[in-house]
Write a structure and sequence with these properties.
The chain has 862 residues and is of the alpha/beta class. It has a 4-stranded antiparallel β-sheet with strand order 6-5-14-16. A 4-stranded mixed β-sheet has the order 10-11-9-12. A 4-stranded mixed β-sheet has the order 27-26-29-28. The protein starts with 6 loop residues before the first helix and ends with a helix.
């Protein structure tokens, strides 16, 4: 073995070996029970970000462990075609050549997008391989591949035939820049300082007026009513009357609707059914006309009268000026409100009445809620359940059509001869109603989330009855961030329950988002995103994975990896490396599994029992998806107990010809099992070390450890406390590591054991004997019922040490008094920055603690 651990060298040589050996395929455990995870498909447009690195590290821990436990573990990889994002990328490339998609036509444009996908699609798989994610690449899927496209058409046609998909004019999110409808997740809401404009609408009978408040003055051009709450006594006499719409001179009614918020503005709101979701609902309930005054290009339509052709924001100013000139403008006040922006273009989203395709969600929601209430599915942590219920119980029908060219074409055709709409899996040759042959295909494509909603079963071959579908549906667990619970998790539940008859997964494991030090979400737009490969190249993929896993506490956001954390994880890899180097020099043959001693020495029994306990703890924590706790527990065990104690305790027996074989066997199985336990988190370095220590097959397919229980030596904890106390005595008195100490151990119970003296000399250069309490000239160390008396004579020059300690006390007192004087000065406390005052308080506290320690040492000397 090399003398030092080089992550780059180690991590470059294992992935191809795993893959070529078929180590990531479920067939590696042909008789194992099925276990399946489908990857949340990243967008094919780009590369994995830190959130992906966290999400996939968690999944890899789960799948590698299940594989080692003998299950037929399948992790399905794949990518999403990301309709808008991908189309935007290719359109930007065309724009650089002075072209638009319309210049080259739909067929050529789609062909060009496929070419781009082939060029760029390998980036994600490269990252996944670099970070060690053990997916089964032989089963890789893409949301636009032939099999998934067939599944999408099957689902669309089935839902249409069941009356759960329909085409209608409804309010949708519209991006004037991208010229398409958007899903809710593609809209990012930002708190924006805007305005609240109050407008006077005179009653048509000439008696008085009603004042309404709006944040978007330009939409008043499309008002078809004013609405008030039916219980609002201020407007009881206004209900049923008509008002004159300023500027447009249109008579519109005052209606009552329970959805109106009496606390907003004046309590009376303008109703623009074509440009607001609430207004649309009010319009439906009251039978109001919907007038579209903002077009798909963001300009005012001819229905906007004198303002036609203006940009919507320019019209906002012009409308206010015209209202002021007419005397209808009451006031304009600053008002902060939430404004939706397109996540791709950052353009302000326009709520707009549009003819689109929708999924009727109400019949699908009930089963997707019941699956949690009846225990078939659960959230981990459970706290996400209530917000999920709230969301599902307030869902609007899902707009699934997009005005794009890249994506799943909606399987609908129109007969212009008789206006028949034909929905079919395969393109029809003639109208099913009148027989006309000239049919027009729907121009729109489906929302990307529609195809990804089928991911748990479409990736396994549905609608065909494949062996994978029979064996691996339902999936075993879903791991994802909370930001897509409503837009992806909920939709998969609805589709899985509807088409497969059972929930797609029993466990939905939700983790936090990776946040920067200032609490912001990482994003390219904020220029604070970090490529996980950059950190992997600097510290190693294993170090990045371990850092992310240790930070991912359930129910909390995940802090972005800091350099010092990554460096600590890399140093841990080096410590593990050195432990195996030590073991490899003493151990000739380590069994792939088993090999646990039946009657070990006390020191060995201690570490073997601790190995048993920690393995059980790690198993319980991983079964509960508490990854941070699991690997923090394992990390502490390896560092503090295996590296710092066990390896040192093993050195003396390894030198003894009569005990070396037994000691070597214990060293071998303990280090072997530590490698196994860490493998799911840090696969590269553990696989490398396995090849050096065990050399029997791959660690990736080795059995998960199952060490038996042992009787703990009654004395181990007491012995460790005495050794630590002796080391502390040595450090406090400035004694070098080779200075031998003498200790008499007095046992008031039945604790001490014969092996203590040998190990005391090995671990602390401490000559230990058992006997009665000696007289003066000793310092007393206590551990439980055991006392250890360290001889001062010969170890230190008592007079010189007393003088040194007295001088140190005087120096510490001066430091304490100086800090206390500063803090007692009111002028200093009032004028000095808070961090300076805090620093002085720290100095005072440290000085007081040092004085106490030094005086205790002086007292020991007599």
């Amino acid at each position: 073995m090399e003398s030092t651990y080089d992550p780059a060298a180690v991590e470059s040589r294992w992935y191809d070996r795993w893959e070529s050996a078929g180590a990531f395929r479920p067939e590696v455990n042909p008789d194992g029970a099925p276990f399946c995870i489908v990857i949340p498909p990243p967008n094919v447009t780009g590369s994995l970000h830190m959130g992906h690195a966290l999400d996939l590290s968690i999944q890899d821990v789960i799948i590698r462990r299940k594989r080692m436990q003998g299950l037929a573990a399948l992790w399905v990889p794949g990518t999403d075609h990301a309709g808008i994002a991908t189309q935007n990328v290719v359109e930007r490339e065309l724009a650089a050549e002075g072209l638009s998609r319309h210049d080259i036509g739909r067929e050529a444009f789609v062909e060009q997008v496929w070419m781009w996908k082939e060029r760029s699609g390998g980036r994600i798989s490269e990252q996944m391989r670099t970070l060690g994610f053990s997916v089964d690449w032989t089963r890789e899927r893409f949301t636009l591949d032939e099999g998934l496209s067939r599944a999408v058409r099957q689902v669309f046609v089935t839902l249409y035939d069941e009356g759960l998909i329909y085409r209608s004019n409804r309010i949708i999110n519209w991006c004037p820049h991208c010229r398409t409808a958007l899903s809710d997740i593609e809209v990012e809401h930002e708190e924006t300082l805007g305005e609240l404009v109050t407008i006077r609408y005179p009653f048509a009978d000439g008696e008085g007026a009603i004042e309404v408040a709006t944040t978007r003055a330009e939409t008043m051009l499309g008002d078809t009513a004013v609405a008030v709450h039916p219980g609002d006594e201020r407007y009881a006499d206004a209900i049923g009357r008509e008002v004159i719409l300023p500027l447009m001179e249109r008579r519109i009614p005052v209606v009552a609707d329970a959805e109106v918020d009496p606390e907003f503005g004046t309590g009376a709101v303008k109703v623009t059914p074509a440009h607001d979701p609430l207004d649309f609902d009010i319009g439906q309930r009251s039978g109001l006309e919907a007038i579209k005054v903002i077009g798909e290009d963001g300009l005012i339509t001819p229905a906007g009268g004198q303002f036609a052709g203006m940009d919507r924001f320019g019209a906002r100013t012009a409308v206010k000026e015209a209202l002021a000139a007419s005397g209808a403008l009451v006031s304009v006040a600053e008002h902060t409100h939430s404004v939706g922006h397109c996540s791709r273009s950052n353009d302000v989203v326009e709520p707009m009445l549009s003819l689109q395709w929708f999924v009727k969600v109400e019949p699908l929601v009930g089963p997707a809620i019941d699956t949690f209430r009846n225990g078939e599915t659960r959230f981990v942590p459970k706290s996400w359940e209530n917000s999920y219920f709230h969301w599902m119980e307030n869902l609007r029908d899902w707009c699934i059509s997009r005005q794009l060219w890249w994506g799943h074409r909606i399987p609908a055709w129109y007969c212009d001869a008789c206006q028949e709409v034909i929905v079919a899996k395969d393109e029809p040759t003639a109208c099913t109603a009148c027989g006309a042959a000239n049919l027009r295909a729907d121009e729109d494509v489906l929302d990307t989330w529609f195809s990804s909603a089928l991911w748990p079963f479409s990736t396994l071959g549905w609608p065909d009855e494949t062996e994978d579908l029979k064996r691996f549906y339902p999936n075993s667990v879903l791991v994802t961030g909370y930001d897509i619970i409503y837009f992806w998790v909920a939709r998969m539940l609805k589709m899985g329950l509807h088409f497969m008859g059972e929930s797609p997964y029993p466990d939905v494991v939700i983790h936090g988002l990776v946040r920067t030090a200032d609490g912001r979400k990482m994003s390219k737009s904020l220029n604070n995103a970090v490529d996980p490969l950059d950190l992997a190249h600097t510290y190693g993929a294993d170090a990045l994975r371990l850092t992310l896993l240790q930070a991912a506490a359930p129910g909390h956001e995940v802090p972005a990896p800091q350099d010092e954390w990554l460096d600590a994880a890399r140093r841990f890899g080096n410590k593990l490396w050195n432990a195996v180097r030590f073991a490899a020099t003493h151990v000739d043959d380590v069994p792939r599994a088993g090999g646990y001693p039946t009657d070990p020495a006390p020191e060995a029994a201690w570490i073997l029992q601790r190995l048993h306990e920690v393995t059980q703890q790690v198993d319980e924590l991983l079964d509960e998806y508490r990854f941070s706790d699991a690997f923090s527990t394992l990390y502490a065990f390896a560092w503090s107990e295996v590296f710092d104690w066990f390896i040192e305790l093993s050195k003396a027996p390894l030198r003894d010809p009569d005990r070396s074989a037994e000691a070597a066997a214990v060293v071998g199985v303990v280090i072997r099992d530590v490698l196994k336990l860490f493998h799911p988190a840090i696969p590269f370095v553990t696989e490398e070390l396995w090849s050096q220590l065990v050399g029997d097959g791959l660690l990736a397919t080795a059995p998960w450890p199952d060490p038996p229980a042992y009787d703990l030596p009654r004395s181990m904890e007491t012995f460790q406390e005495l050794i630590v106390a002796a080391r502390r005595f040595r450090a406090e008195h400035g004694l070098g590591p080779n200075a031998e100490l003498t200790m008499v151990v007095v046992d008031a119970g039945d604790t001490v054991e014969d092996w203590w003296p040998e190990q005391a000399m090995e671990l602390a250069r401490l000559s230990m004997t058992f006997g009665e309490a000696p007289g003066e000239g000793h310092t007393r160390l206590v551990s439980g019922k055991v006392e250890g008396f360290v001889a001062l004579g010969g170890a230190i020059d008592v007079d010189s040490e007393r003088q040194r300690l007295a001088a140190a006390v005087a120096t510490a007192v001066d430091a304490r008094d100086h800090a206390a004087a500063k803090l007692g000065n009111e002028s200093f406390r009032d004028r000095a920055p808070a961090e300076v005052v805090e620093k002085e308080q720290g100095k005072l506290s440290a000085a007081e603690q040092l004085i106490d320690s030094l005086r205790a040492q002086l007292e020991e000397l007599g």
